[in-house]
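Re: the request from the purification team.
They wanted to know what the chain is likely to look like in 3D before they choose a buffer screen. I agreed to run a prediction and write the result into the notebook, where they can find it.
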Amino acid sequence: MKRACILLVAATVLICRPAHGSCGEPNEPGVPRRPRIGLVLSGGAALGSAHVGALKVLEEMRIPVDCLAGTSMGAIVGGLYASGVSPSEMETILATTDWRNLLDDRPPRRHLPYRRKVDDQTYLTRFEAGFNRGSVQIPPGLISGQQLGFALQEMALQAAGIEDFDLLPIPFRAAATDLASGDLVVLRGGDLGQAIRASMSIPGIFSPVVIDGRTLVDGGLARNLPVDLAREMGAEVIIAVDVGQPMEEKQLWSIGSVTGQVMGFQIAANTRAQSKLADVIVRPRLTGFGSAQFERGLEMVPFGEAAARDVAPELERYSLPEGVYRARLERIRRKRSFSDAKVRSIQLTQSSTADSRFVMRQVRIRPGDPLDLEAIRQDLERLYETGDYERIDFRLKPIDHDFELYIEAIDKPWGPNILRLGLNVVADLEGESSFDALTSYTMTRLNRRRGELKVHAQLGENPAISAELYQPLSIHQTWFVSAGARQSTTTEYLQVPAATGAVAPYRFDTGAFELDLGLQLGEYAELRLGLVNGTTLAEIRGGAGAVPPAGLDRELEYDSGGIHASAIVDQFDNMNFPRQGYFVVADYFDSRENLGAEGDYQRLASFVGLAGTHGRHTVLGLSNLYSALGSSSPETFTLGGLFRLSGAPSRSVRGQYGGNVTALYLYRAGDLPLGLGDGIYVGGSVEAGNLWETADDVSASDLRYAGSLVLGADTSFGPLYLAAGFGEGGDQALYLFVGRTF
């Protein structure tokens, strides 16, 4: 009897269950019963911009959409449309979005805490890895999606707090792929922005997204055209838009294109199978467009329109009367008002892996504040700029007319110990060249006050190694102490006393210890005062048989010790090719015998860089000033090399007083492909300067003049220059640089 009752109840449930699923039963007054229409939008990265054109034509023809399913870019367009965003609003998004910035996780450099700017000053690449428990750990994607994630949350704001996608104005599904199993994952609810982000996480390009314990990537691998999802929602008629394009043979000559083509085989196979289940297929002809050309998205919209009009005869039968369709559209587009909404509370999500105390100290929004997306953005950016996190997301959960703000702070899976690499390559026509490989290893968050141990090593022509223990004195990270040691080897050219203009190459080996007290002024500057002690040994290059020129010894050795003070103000927007901002360095050293030096003397060195840009035109002013402050120093300042009296050999001009001034013009001639870097520049410089042994020798009439012609590129592995330098007396050089030149 009990078993019979159970079977009866089960049968009743099955009989009474709506046949139309989440698609909903069409219920337009005065309109005969029509089939439930599902719209399916395929993946295709930037090519998915054409979906917007197809939507425009569907609205022009008054074709209702009862449910919607999408993958990757189709999930973005479909999710926004399902939440009430119109095609014209999407066109505005395509037209106004800075895609290069959106797909670049780097925060604006000028806003970084000063401590995070230090690596940029030593010409390290943008890429980083982790080194933990004896193994190197690589980030799971080139792009973590910080900027993109916030943009998606902002676009999908109308869906904030709606965690069942059946309750959106148009029921919606997003397709993703389980990275562990390769299985299709259907996203039916949760946070819409996060679901869209998961559906478009191209493996290796975007970091995966973890939802309900599953690691998800782009849905195209499992279901690029998810027609079956719309069928499961109850759709009786499927309109599918497929933006996939075959790659031409002439395009298959790069690693990226070949890899993309191989992945495309799997995507194409599941797309073909799904397209057979559709009733109407819209296929925009997007020949000439690339899947990475997001900046051309607006150009693709008309192709989506044209393709939809090509199948207009098949669509006309589903058209609704004008008044009925407009009433339906008004209901779907009804906007929620957030003008009076407030932030009721602020919490970390359970999935956050970060130190909650540190995170909440960075958040300036307070309970009771108005809901302000710009204020939320600033808080999230402030957290992200610390460099500790892979991604900072947010969620809004409604409470009455207000919202709870949930912050999700995800630690870098490859952290907390960070490894960065770099190159410094210098070559000129005279045969002088050097190649140095750089690495920086930083152990972060050593204690509650976020102390750091940074080790920097350089291998090659100029080997060096240094280590610094950096310890903030409070949780506010303003005052700090620093202890460091360094050992370096460089080649410098000493002037030969008996021969005017002649120089001799010497190998300088320097070791030193430093102890500093410092003050970090937020994102702007760092001040230091401390003690330094070291030894320098210089030996003429050429081996044991090398004979020094007259007036110079074969070996030079001196001890140094004293008090040093420095100030660095760093507000360049880009250390490789600055376009805006300023960079100022002042370094003072007071050598004292009672601190281990061989004599008392003083030195002052300064650098000032200014950058301004109008359109594609950038002008930089660069200046170095040096002074021995009336003392006699065993150390000398140097000039020579690109932008430091171009044409003259590097470090070949030496003295105790003087400096140089350089005016550099750069024209941004183009851009490198996304992921490979930023701008390509052409330009030139005019330069003047000199160094003298005494202050009395300094004279404007004795200035040396130089200039250069430059071709440069801001690549992902560092600044790249090809330049020709010209100086007085026939000085000239052709330079190839990878690394910082000033």
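For the purification team: The CA atoms of residues 419 and 435 lie 20 Å apart.
Please add any questions underneath this entry.
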